[in-house]
């Protein structure tokens, strides 16, 4: 007989029910989130009880007889969830950007403007997501009560570490793409110089009336156009890399405390080990 494991779903509903029943009026108002007050009301002289929402304000005030309150999560939790969602969206966009980089660097018969627009659009989307997340991350330390400040700081450092890692990864990819663009630009300049040299040599020779044929002139114009396009792409990528560097600098302020905390934990563990060892020696005596 086929069976289905519903344990996870059961635990989810059980925990949700506990979170609804547990908060009281006093504890809910201290959580920093909005409070929904429900009251047992009677309409049209009906004996059937119905629950009518009275308010969703921060402080509902004294409740009437038979009323109970449900505390909603604080605002900073919504912010942290939005930051995490932005990080996931940025990762998806980065995968698309890598494919666009590879496509743009491949030889093609077109002018490459479509690939360039795609790269610029994806880069802007990712950078905007990172910048938006960084601004929301800075607000986490101010949004919320003092009771959950340690929890907020831990969430803030964790998200800051993820954002910084993502920014570094994007910067590496952009730097690699920039180097390959510069290499292609140098190759294009070399080709253009060779063609110009051949043209000058033909003009100085006795066969100057022959000149360049149509194919060579087309190739020269295409090379000049490609060089200008590469220069514009390089300028755009350099701008993106510099902006990412600023984002990483801002995030480093939020991440730097993490190493200090780890060092402090190691120090406390060493002190505990020393104390246990000293206590063991005293017991042996």
TrEMBL record:
GO terms for molecular function: SNAP receptor activity. It is found in: Golgi apparatus, trans-Golgi network membrane. One of its GO terms (cellular component) is membrane. Residues 1-33, 47-67 are annotated as: Disordered. Signal peptide: none annotated. The keyword Transmembrane helix applies. It is a single-pass type IV membrane protein. Gene3D superfamilies: 1.20.58.70. Residues 224-285 form the T-SNARE coiled-coil homology domain. Its main location: Golgi. It comes from the Eukaryota. Keywords: Golgi apparatus, Membrane, Plant defense, Protein transport, Transmembrane, Transmembrane helix, Transport. The keyword Transport applies. SMART domains: SynN, t_SNARE. InterPro entries: SNARE (IPR010989), Syntaxin (IPR045242), Syntaxin/epimorphin_CS (IPR006012), Syntaxin_N (IPR006011), T_SNARE_dom (IPR000727). GO terms for biological process: chloroplast organization; defense response to fungus; Golgi organization; Golgi to plasma membrane protein transport; Golgi to vacuole transport; intracellular protein transport; salicylic acid mediated signaling pathway; trans-Golgi network membrane organization. Belongs to the syntaxin family. This is Syntaxin of plants 41 isoform 2. It comes from Theobroma cacao (Cacao). The lineage of its organism: Eukaryota, Viridiplantae, Streptophyta, Embryophyta, Tracheophyta.
């Amino acid at each position: 007989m086929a069976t289905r494991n519903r344990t996870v779903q059961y635990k989810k509903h059980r925990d949700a029910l506990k979170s609804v029943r547990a908060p009281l009026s006093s504890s809910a108002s201290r959580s920093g989130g909005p409070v929904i007050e429900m009251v047992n009301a009677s309409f049209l002289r009906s004996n059937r009880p119905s629950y009518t929402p009275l308010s969703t304000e921060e402080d509902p005030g004294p409740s009437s007889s038979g009323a109970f309150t449900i505390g909603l999560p604080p605002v900073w939790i919504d912010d942290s969830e939005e930051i995490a969602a932005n990080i996931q969206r940025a990762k998806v966009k980065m995968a698309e950007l890598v494919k666009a980089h590879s496509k743009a660097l491949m030889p093609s018969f077109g002018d490459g403007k479509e690939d360039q627009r795609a790269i610029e659009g994806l880069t802007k989307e990712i950078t905007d997501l990172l910048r938006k997340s960084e601004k929301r991350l800075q607000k986490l330390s101010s949004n919320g009560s003092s009771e959950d400040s340690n929890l907020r700081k831990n969430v803030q450092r964790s998200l800051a570490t993820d954002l910084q890692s993502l920014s570094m990864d994007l910067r590496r990819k952009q730097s690699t793409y920039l180097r390959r663009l510069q290499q292609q630009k140098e190759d294009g300049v070399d080709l253009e110089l060779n063609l110009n040299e051949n043209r000058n040599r033909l003009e100085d020779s006795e066969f100057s009336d022959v000149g360049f044929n149509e194919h060579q002139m087309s190739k020269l114009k295409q090379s000049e156009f490609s060089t200008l396009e590469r220069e514009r792409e390089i300028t755009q990528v350099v701008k993106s890399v510099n902006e990412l560097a600023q984002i990483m600098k801002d995030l480093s302020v939020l991440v730097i405390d993490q190493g200090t905390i780890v060092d402090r934990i190691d120090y406390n563990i060493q002190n505990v080990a020393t104390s246990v060892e000293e206590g063991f020696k005293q017991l042996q005596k």
